[in-house]
Amino acid sequence: MGSIQIDAGTVIVGDGTERTDVQIGVQDSQIVEVAENGLENSYDRTVDASDRVVMPGLIDAHVHLDYPADPDQLDITGLSDEYLALRAAELARDALRTGTTTLADVASRSTSIFSLRDAIADGVTLGPRLAVCGGMVAITGGRATGGYNRGDEGVIIEVDGPDEARKEVRKLLMYHGADLIKLAATGALSSPHTGARDAQLTVEEMTAATEEAHKCGRPVHAHCYGEAGISNALDAGVDVIVHGQSLTDDHIDQMHDQGSLLVPTLATFRKLEDRMEILGERERPDSSGGVREEAVPNFKRALEAGIPIAAGTDCGMPEVYHGTNPVELVHYVDLGMTPDEAITAGTLTAARSLNLEDELGSIEPGKYADMLILSADPREDISRLTDSDTVDRILLDGEFVEDQL
Ligand SMILES: [Zn+2]
Question: Is the pLDDT of residue 394 over 70?
Answer without folding.
Answer: yes
